[in-house]
Amino acid sequence: MAHGDFVWCDLSAHDADPSRGFYRDLFGWTFVLEDDTEYDTALNGNDPVGGHFQMPQKFMNIGMPAFWMSYIDVDDVTQTAELAQSLGGKVEIGPSPFMQGAEFALIRDPLGAGFTVCSGTPAGRMSNKPGNRVGHSLFVSDRSKIQGFYENLFGWTFSTNQPDGASVVSTGPKFHCFCHEIPDESVRGKEEFWAVFFAHADLGKAAKAIGDLGGKTAGAALRLNEGKVLFAQDRDGATFGLLETQSHWSNLALPSFPLLAWFGLALVILGTVTDALWIWLVFLGVWVTTGLASGETHLFETVERRTNPFTYWAIMATYGAIIGVIGAVYAGVL
Fold first, then answer.
1. Burial class (CB in 10 A: 0-12, 13-18, 19+), 8
2. Which of 69, 74, 156, 318 could form a disulfide with 117 if both were Cys (CB 3.0 to 4.6 A apart)?
3. C-alpha distance from residue 107 to each of 89, 116, 169 (Å)
4. Which range marks the domain in which residue 164 is found?
5. In whole angstroms, how far apart are CA 186 and each of 113, 183, 190, 218?
């Protein structure tokens, strides 16, 4: 993961036990308590979806609503928090330690939409598998008042060539989220907010289940840039979104021809036909360079440096050793 990537979400619940039951029955999640904490991790099968915890009583006493929170990875939490303040944002909590040696800070943008920045947090991957976290979207009254904030804070760019005035938020070709400008408070709601979306195969069945479980939906399903979505509240009033699985939005955003992939495929074919070792040297060099830059490498699965350092460095060392052998062959040593 890189600076500006969405990596996690969690729910601050008013009544933790019934809240777990709501999501267990809606999505089939199970909950695992982190060691020496009151913080649960919600699992969809073996996939980590997000965190879940009991809101401290002091926050409930001041009327803080239950809420889902979006987490964004940053290189340095303290520097990001200081920059956010200088850009007109507000640091509500932190920088503070998080689980497993991580760090976080809760920030509000200039219009009041809250999100959390973090570093060292194990990333939960998004997918359109039913029950998994599928993405995040920002809903604001005036995009011009927050666009510069996020561009300077995360290096994002806002492209407004989408229907209904929505913006694609990205870093180069990497898609992050949609931003919806909805000035009408009766449509958007009173607050500016970040929404967390989870995948569901049938929004009609989901709406009925939510009602049966003590939650409620905000009207009928809608067609947004993300796809077919349904906004709902759990039994504590925490708002979340459901996205129909046929419309996973990351497949829709910023379509581009995968030129580098085709170039790599051509190299594979050329290397196979000619048996040229230098081609494999190029591949390994690229894998090592990008792995060092991003902090993750791949060998049948993704391995992150910060969460599995031993395996990460074993793979990287193996790639480096192979590069050395190929280099020795070209030098005539072997």
1. buried
2. 74
3. 7, 6, 19
4. 6-251
5. 17, 9, 7, 12
Question: Which tokens is 314 given?
Answer: 């074993």
Instruction: Decide: residue 327, CB within 10 A, 0-12 exposed, 13-18 middle, 19+ buried.
Output: middle
pLDDT of residue 327: 78
Contacts of 46 (CB under 8 A, 6+ apart): none
Query: How far apart are alpha carbons 329 and 248 in whole angstroms?
Result: 47
- 298 in the same domain as 180: no
- Listed in sequence order, the residues at least 6 apart from 289 whose beta carbon sits closer than 8 Å to its beta carbon are none
* Residue 215 sits in the same domain as residue 273: no
Output b/e per residue, 125-134; b: 16+ Cβ within 10 A.
ebbbbbbbbb
| 110 falls within a domain | yes
279 domain-assigned: yes
Instruction: Give me the percent of the chain exceeding a pLDDT of 90.
Output: 45
Spatial separation of the C-alpha atoms in residues 181 and 261, rounded to whole Å: 35
Is there a single domain that holds both residue 84 and residue 109? Answer: yes
Strand (E) or helix (H) holding 17: helix 16-27
Question: Are 213 and 78 in a shared domain?
Answer: yes
pLDDT of residue 207: 95
Regarding pTM above 0.90, the answer is: no
Is 147 found in the same domain as 30? yes
User: 235 and 280: one domain?
Assistant: no
Q: Which residue(s) pair with 54 in the sheet?
A: 13
Please check whether residue 1 lies inside any domain of the structure: no
| Number of independent structural domains in the chain | 2
Give the integer Cα–Cα distance in Å for 173 and 68.
27
**Same domain? 104 vs 125:** yes
CA atoms in the 13 A half-sphere facing the CB of 104? 20
Task: Please provide the size of the chain in residues.
Answer: 334
